[in-house]
């Protein structure tokens, strides 16, 4: 039984892609929060 059989490769790739997606989702969430903060800041500036 080899170390690089299909099942192990698939398991590794799935784990890798899951981690990459997690990073990507965190980045998108940060950008969304930043947009909200900027929007609120601009609204506050406009009211003054």
Write the layout of secondary structure elements.
Blueprint: H1 6-47
Describe the structure concisely for a colleague.
By secondary structure, the protein is mainly α. It has one helix at residues 6-47.
User: Rg to the nearest angstrom?
Assistant: 21 Å
Structural class: mainly alpha
Tally of contiguous helical segments: 1
Taking all residues together, what is the mean pLDDT? 92
Order of helices and strands: H
How much of the sequence lies in strands comes to: under 5%
In which range does the helix fraction lie?
A: over 70%
Largest sheet: none
The total of beta strands comes to 0
Q: How many angstroms does the end-to-end distance come to?
A: 71 Å
Shape: rod-shaped
Query: Uncertain regions: pLDDT < 50 for 5+ in a row?
Result: none
Write up this protein.
- The chain is mainly α.
- It is built from one helix and no strands.
- The longest helix is centred in the middle third of the chain and has 42 residues, at 6-47.
- The protein starts with 5 loop residues before the first helix and ends with a helix.
- The relative contact order is 0.07.
- The mean pLDDT is 92.
